[in-house]
Amino acid sequence: MNETERERLQPGGERPETARPPAGGSLLGDALALLLKLGWIALVLALALVFVVGLFTQRGDSMDPAFQERDIVIFFRLDWKPEAGEAVVFRDADGAPRVGRAVAVAGDTVEIDELGLRINGFYQDEPYVTGQTLRFEDGPDYPLLLGEGEVFVLFDVREAGGDSRSLGPLEAGQLLGRVMLLLRHRGF
Q: pTM of this prediction?
């Protein structure tokens, strides 16, 4: 260390120059950068809502009490194989999204008689069901063997029409996805 450097370090002497932080951008530049980041986040969320998940507001009481009128239903759209017992979203005869319960899948035999719903010869114990499961006159003939990609969907409130008892088995193209999340409407 030379003499000049020692003088700078002694009390009363000049202090050595310290590194200064880089000069920040203008307030406008920072605001634009923030808006750009928020725009990217919004774009990613929008793409996720279009291609990965979907949402709609439940209408009617066909799945009461599990799904109630004006509840927000969030469903998973990506490739999935429906399983018996799970809540699924499908397009009804009017093309509107509806929630129903998959009761039988490809390879299953569905029968509905005066005693209720039978899948593969066994009557089903469905504690979540309201009302008696009856066949509809304009529905499919039973016993019904489900083909590849077909799903038999029923509403929990069995008096409600518009499920597979009137539409017949649903094809893969009519299924929109599997219910992932339910946001309850609180009446606000």
A: 0.73
Tokens of 67: 């799904």
Q: What is the per-residue pLDDT across 87-96, written as a single tens digit (0 to 9) for each?
A: 999 998 888 8
Task: Tell the CATH topology of 80-182.
Answer: Umud Fragment, subunit A (2.10.109)
- Residue by residue, DSSP assigns the chain as --HHHHHHHSTTSPPPPPPPPPPP--HHHHHHHHHHHHHHHHHHHHHHHHHTEEEEE--SSTTTTTS-TT-EEEEE-SS----TT-EEEEE-TTS-EEEEEEEEETT-EEEEETTEEEETTEE---TT-BS-----TTS--SSEE--TT-EEEE-SBTT--SSHHHH-SBPGGGEEEEEEEEE-----
